[in-house]
Specification:
The chain is mostly helical. The protein has five helices and two strands; from the N terminus they run E-E-H-H-H-H-H. Strands 1-2 form a two-stranded antiparallel ribbon. Helix 1 packs antiparallel against helix 2, helix 1 runs antiparallel to helix 4 and helix 3 packs parallel to helix 5.
Length: 194
């Protein structure tokens, strides 16, 4: 794909085109869903850049590579959401059970280094971990937007499953990054009602 010009002026009246060329309002549920996935991808780009600035050692490259893999999969997922359910194109990406299993395997590996949780974790403690928590909340919102879309139109259930597991993986990675960088994990303190 070659992009020769970024602006087209076709969206100036509040509409955009889906992958198949259909014109829809920019605030449609479908556009909101893939737009939130795009926002998540951008947040992960910030996480990756900051991690590469902050991290040292063997985990530096491997975590950056996993985040890049997540970003690529999110780009695929956004493309699927930008395509109406009854359409398909040559070489369309897919979300497969192996993509979900990969996230689960990563979580299992990261969990080996972590203490069991005694309380809820509050975002904070370090920049990379805090940004991962922010990405996690955007991921949950993307999942909710896709569920809303699913109630109106068919959506591949693998998309919902992937986003659900990705938000879990971002939570575990945030905890692991704090541990790896020697940062104190900020835990929720119950407020005394008296």
């Amino acid at each position: 794909m070659r992009i020769t010009r970024v602006y087209t002026k076709t969206g100036d009246k509040g509409k955009t085109r889906l992958a198949g060329g259909q014109q829809v309002w920019k605030d449609s549920v479908r556009v909101d869903a893939y737009g939130t996935v795009d926002e998540l991808n951008a947040a992960l780009g910030i996480v990756r850049a900051w991690w590469l600035k902050e991290a040292r050692g063997t985990a530096r490259a491997s975590v950056a590579q996993e985040i890049r893999r997540m970003q690529n999969k999110l780009f695929d997922l956004g493309g699927l959401l930008a395509t109406l359910p009854d359409q398909s194109f040559p070489n369309m990406p897919t979300i497969q059970s192996a993509d979900v299993t990969r996230l689960e395997d990563l979580m299992d590996d990261w969990q080996k280094d972590l203490r069991s949780l005694r309380e809820f974790v509050l975002p904070g403690g370090g920049m990379t971990s805090s940004m991962l928590h922010l990405a996690r909340t955007i991921c949950r919102r993307a999942e909710r937007r896709c569920v809303t879309l699913m109630q109106k139109e068919p959506v591949d259930p693998a998309i919902i499953t992937y986003l659900n597991r990705l938000s879990d993986a971002l939570f575990v990675l945030a905890r692991w990054v704090s541990h790896r960088l020697g940062e104190e994990e900020v835990l929720w303190e119950r407020t005394n009602p008296n």
